[in-house]
């Protein structure tokens, strides 16, 4: 159970709005993360804290397949992205790097930036504003990948056994 502040975004937010292409020239995620959501909220990277959440509408992370988009969110300490739906490649990239991407159809309509929420990933629920929302519960193998820090970390730990 992790409680954090919500940063809310809208439908069809694409990867260029998460991290604009000109910042992909920077040498690493540490330098890129200061520019996360720059076109949406220029102070986002300064305001977001570890264990905060990004909540959005439909088709979050559409656009290019750049894995820096979930990467900068994880580098900033975002605990999870909860949306009505995800672009398939963003969802896959997020899980691969160890950033939970949770589908929750009703939550985004009921919350605002600044609200707090608590994610119960293993139960598939979120609590916000005194209400419990049912979300898609990730399969055990995906939760295992996330708990290990992403796909590569998970595979490396399997090889060590």
UniProtKB/TrEMBL annotation:
<comment type="function">
    <text>Catalyzes the isomerization between 2-isopropylmalate and 3-isopropylmalate, via the formation of 2-isopropylmaleate.</text>
</comment>
<comment type="subunit">
    <text>Heterodimer of LeuC and LeuD.</text>
</comment>
<dbReference type="InterPro" id="IPR000573">
    <property type="entry name" value="AconitaseA/IPMdHydase_ssu_swvl"/>
</dbReference>
<keyword id="KW-0100">Branched-chain amino acid biosynthesis</keyword>
<feature type="domain" description="Aconitase A/isopropylmalate dehydratase small subunit swivel">
    <location>
        <begin position="42"/>
        <end position="102"/>
    </location>
</feature>
<keyword id="KW-0456">Lyase</keyword>
<keyword id="KW-0432">Leucine biosynthesis</keyword>
<comment type="similarity">
    <text>Belongs to the LeuD family. LeuD type 2 subfamily.</text>
</comment>
<protein>
    <recommendedName>
        <fullName>3-isopropylmalate dehydratase small subunit</fullName>
        <ecNumber>4.2.1.33</ecNumber>
    </recommendedName>
</protein>
<dbReference type="InterPro" id="IPR033940">
    <property type="entry name" value="IPMI_Swivel"/>
</dbReference>
<dbReference type="InterPro" id="IPR050075">
    <property type="entry name" value="LeuD"/>
</dbReference>
<dbReference type="InterPro" id="IPR011827">
    <property type="entry name" value="LeuD_type2/HacB/DmdB"/>
</dbReference>
<dbReference type="GO" id="GO:0003861">
    <property type="term" value="F:3-isopropylmalate dehydratase activity"/>
</dbReference>
<keyword id="KW-0028">Amino-acid biosynthesis</keyword>
<dbReference type="Pfam" id="PF00694">
    <property type="entry name" value="Aconitase_C"/>
</dbReference>
<comment type="pathway">
    <text>Amino-acid biosynthesis; L-leucine biosynthesis; L-leucine from 3-methyl-2-oxobutanoate: step 2/4.</text>
</comment>
<dbReference type="InterPro" id="IPR015928">
    <property type="entry name" value="Aconitase/3IPM_dehydase_swvl"/>
</dbReference>
